[in-house]
Design a protein that fits this description.
rod-shaped, about 0% strand, about 90 residues, single chain, mainly alpha
């Protein structure tokens, strides 16, 4: 091969390498942006989870359960304790 062929081959390889670097850098930026968005969404989900846990702990307090039972189900504490035993069938 002549020097011109080697020079053309070298130019093609250098150009291809440069285009590959540009493409990889672009993909890296796109993926980094996507990673940031996913991390932001994850942070929002963690905050929402904390809010739900707080709400759940508030709703399951004994006073709140008793209040809901009285209001929505018209339940009340029994006036006297009644023990019922069942015969043991074996």
């Amino acid at each position: 091969m002549t020097n011109l062929h080697w020079l053309m081959l070298l130019i093609v390889l250098v150009t291809g390498s440069a285009l590959t670097v540009i493409y990889v850098k672009h993909e890296s930026r796109v993926l980094f942006t996507e990673l940031r968005q996913v991390q932001k969404k994850q942070d929002q989900q963690v905050i929402h989870w904390g809010q739900l846990q707080l709400q759940n702990s508030t709703l399951v307090t004994q006073a709140n359960v008793e209040s809901m039972a009285r209001k929505k189900l018209n339940m009340m504490l029994p006036e006297s304790i009644q023990i019922v035993t069942l015969a043991d069938y074996e």
